[in-house]
Structure formats: C-alpha cells, structure tokens
Amino acid sequence: MKVSIITVNFNQPQVTEELLASIPPITNNIEVIVVDNGSDLDKTPQWRIKYPGVTFIRSAKNLGFAGGNNLGIRQANGEYLFLVNNDTEFTTGLVEKLTSVLDAHPEAGMISPKIKYFSDKSLIQYAGYTPINYYTCRNSCIGLRETDNGQFDNITAPTAYCHGSAMMVRKAAIEKAGLMNENFFLYYEELDWCEHIKRAGYSAWVCTEALIYHKESVSVGKKSKLKEFFMNRNRILFIRRNAPYFKRIIFYVYFVLLVVPRNVLNYLKAKNYVFIPTLLKAVWWNFTHSKNSDNLGYPINTIA
Question: Mean pLDDT throughout 7-33?
Fold first, then answer.
C-alpha cells in the first residue's frame, strides 16, 4: 500500500526541516507532502531544490489545521494518508507498524501511534482516548504525562479517537466521511473528523508499538484570546455537529449556566479581563451562525 505523509508548515521552517530529516528515505511506496500554510516567508522555492523528492504546496493564506491538511489530502496518491504535525519526529518502523494494522483490520479507518514528548522521552502524551461525554464535552487522553514504564505496551486496539498530531487515515474512509471540517480552524477538528469517520462505518485505533515524538511543551500553553475563543467556540460547535438532540440541550444548559460563570470568575481572579468578551463572543457565534458556517468569527490576519 502506498502511504502519503502530509504535514503543514506555518512560520516554522527549521522545525519542518527537522521533521523531514527524521522521515525514512522516500521510496515508490511513500510520498511526502508539505503544505505551507501562508507563512510570512515562503520557503517552498528553496525547499523544492533542497528536497527534490518531496511535494510542496503553497497556500496564500493560513487555512488552519484542517484547511492546510485538506490541501495535502486532495493531492495525495496514497491508499493510506499519514497526517503528522511538523513538530514531530519519526522513529524506526513507525510507518510500517501502522500500515500493518490497517492492512490486517479493514474496519479500522484511522490509527495513531503512541505519542511521547520530545523534550522528555520518558513521558507519554497519548496512548488512546476515552469517549467524549456529550453532556459536558469532556474526555481524557490515556497516559497523558505518565512516565512510560511499559504500562501501555502491546496495545493494538480500537480507541475513541485518534490524535491530531499523528494519525494515519484510510483513503477509502475519507472518501466516505469527507474531509476535515475547515470551520473549526483550531481545536476539536480531528475529534469531529473521527466522529464522522466512525459514522461512515469505520473505527479509530491506536497502536502503542508504533512511536512518534512530539515537540509540544509538556506544560499547558500560555493563554491567549485566540485560544480562549476557539476552544470555547469549537467545544460548543463539536456538540452541535455530533451530539444527539437531547444531549445537546443538556450540554447547552450546562455550558451557559455553569461553564460560562465559572470561566468568568476565573478570568476575574486571574485579572484576565480581556478574556470575558472573548468567551461571550465565542458563545454568541454559535447562536448566530450555522454549524457549517465558513465565518470563523475571528480575524485571520491576527493569527500568528
């Protein structure tokens, strides 16, 4: 089976080059696609010379995680598409271990490897996901920040969701479920995609014998208006797109009467006053826009 490895670059050329250096030599069964997602500096002309075996696609603007990956997916020729963050590093046998599971289990529409932190290779970031509770839109990442003592070894099985930083997807599943929904832009888009792929008759899997390292910081990222807006807007949007009617209603009541007041109090305590209108804007967007609206509700030119 041919595998298309797809990654998206946004203003991180050095990080992307480090990823490319970790990918095994390109063969007839592997193609590598790099999407430049509207970076300030267009490195694709130099990259085409430096990496002649790699396909480079340049977007004039930042299309977000889903939009950037969708550009790569549309041009991919593989039966399996391996979407990886550009801040990851491959390990030996990664691609082969994942493809062997998909080969053996046609019901598996997508699969993720075990993910460990690059900064501390003893710490696990992902070994599977628990299902999302539609009443609260909460779930857990299995193994998160646990020291790897072999507690998740030898697991090759269905899981609730794959991880957005590294997920291999069967092209046939994409053809049935469709591409990632681009109106999420940031956060929740891969969970939404998993839901739609499962709805198309496939399952999501994890294989902990396959390993990738992720350069994401172990600590929680610094708060920003962008993060607060999309985390809250998309949490509601995910439920609108995926939860049954009754559970949606319960979630709306829970979010408006509990989550919003709690978050506002936390903002006040931390003196993050600018986040209060950001939160209210995120909630209001869901009242005033359809669940398939292409209006992000956030100015793209402020996203860096």
Answer: 94
